[in-house]
From TrEMBL:
Transmembrane segments: 74-90, 102-123, 129-148, 160-181, 204-226, 247-270, 290-313, 320-336
Native species: Nocardioides cremeus
Protein name listed in UniProt: Iron ABC transporter permease
Record membrane topology: Multi-pass membrane protein
Keyword Kinase: no
Record family assignment: Belongs to the binding-protein-dependent transport system permease family. FecCD subfamily.
């Protein structure tokens, strides 16, 4: 029986993939260097390198790099990777090109939990928000998945999206009511809610890093399941995939990744929406490659937005969440228009 696979010339596909990987790694390195060197005060690359490998006590530039910009950059790397991959998983499991980590109600669940911690318990630090955000994200995902599993047909992409939208609307309404009644909570909550990499201590990163690692491993493992689900549930079952178990694996990965990212940087939604589109434009429809590329593009977008926010209003700065929305929306529109042109 003739093979249904088309043989690709030996030197073509590997060179292309190596070229894309090299370009993405170069972009990521550039974003990291810019995050360390640029800001309210520009620091020469030589000084940045000296601060990392041979710091001098009392040197202001070295203190800025090590105490402020290194934690900020590391949080951007981990948070951007988590948001990008979570968005790729969401769009794959729901077969919805405009899905993002907020579609399952995860962002709103985390936000409601953080607001509860602020308003009821008086928590005011980012480290204090951490576990409340994670717990709220996990609880929202459990509620959405449990409600979507009711009925004879079980969990479907449409039911996940509808129940997630309902949970998001309910949580948002409660948040609005609380903020209208508690102006002090509004002052503390709005800075976290807009999304930022500033003033995030390394304690936050070390606490959530294990969850991000497990989430990334699960995401890579779910790539084959998502490829099968993209063909429809019946075809996926015919290919030997356990559809229910596969969706549960994806939702678990999304909870770990999105809960970790939201707890660190706030509910920045646009990274998870735009990055998977860019990844598909680069590597096609293979979800394992999409996940891998999203893990690189997510930090590039988030760190780039953070650096831009520091430069445009110096010596002040705009939060990364605002810059991502302002800069990323036109990029997404261009990607969608290009995809439509290719399809035509």
């Amino acid at each position: 029986m003739p093979s249904t696979l088309t043989r690709v010339p030996a030197g073509h596909r590997p060179v292309g993939m190596v070229g894309w990987a090299s370009a993405l790694l170069a972009l990521l390195l550039l974003a990291v260097v810019a995050s360390l060197a640029l800001g309210a005060r520009e620091i020469a690359l030589g000084q940045v390198w000296a601060a990392l490998v041979d710091p001098v006590a009392g040197d202001n530039d070295h203190l800025v790099v090590r105490d402020l910009r290194v934690p900020r950059t590391l949080v951007g790397l981990v948070g951007g990777a988590a948001l990008g991959v979570a968005g790729a998983l969401m769009q794959g499991v729901t077969r919805n090109p405009i899905a993002d980590p907020g579609l399952l109600g995860i962002n709103s669940g985390a936000s409601l939990a953080v607001l509860g911690a602020i308003s009821l318990l008086g928590v005011t630090s980012v480290v204090g928000y951490l576990w409340f955000a994670f717990a709220g994200a996990a609880l929202a995902a459990v509620v959405v998945y449990g409600a979507a599993s009711l009925g004879l047909e079980g969990v479907t992409p449409v039911k996940l999206a509808l129940v997630g939208a309902a949970v998001t609307a309910t949580s948002t309404s409660v948040i609005t009511v609380v903020l209208l009644a508690d102006t002090q909570a509004l002052d503390d909550y709005r800075f976290w809610q807009v999304g930022s990499l500033a003033n995030r201590p390394l304690d936050v990163l070390t606490a959530v890093a294990p969850f991000v690692v497990v989430g990334l491993v699960l995401a890579l493992a779910a790539g084959r399941v998502l490829d099968a689900l993209a063909l429809g549930d019946d075809v996926a079952r015919g290919l030997g995939q356990d559809v229910v178990r596969g969706r549960l694996l994806v939702v678990l990965a999304v909870v770990l990744l999105c809960g970790s990212a939201v707890s660190m940087v706030g509910p920045i939604a646009f990274v998870g929406l735009a990055v998977p589109h860019l990844a598909r434009a680069v590597v096609g429809l293979d979800h394992r490659r999409i996940v891998a590329v999203s893990a690189l593009l997510g930090p590039v977008l988030l760190l780039g937005a953070d650096v831009a926010g520091r430069l445009v209003v110096r010596p002040g700065e705009l939060e990364a969440g605002l810059v991502v929305a302002l800069v990323g929306a036109p990029v997404l529109l261009l990607v969608v228009r290009r995809s439509q042109a290719v399809a035509a």
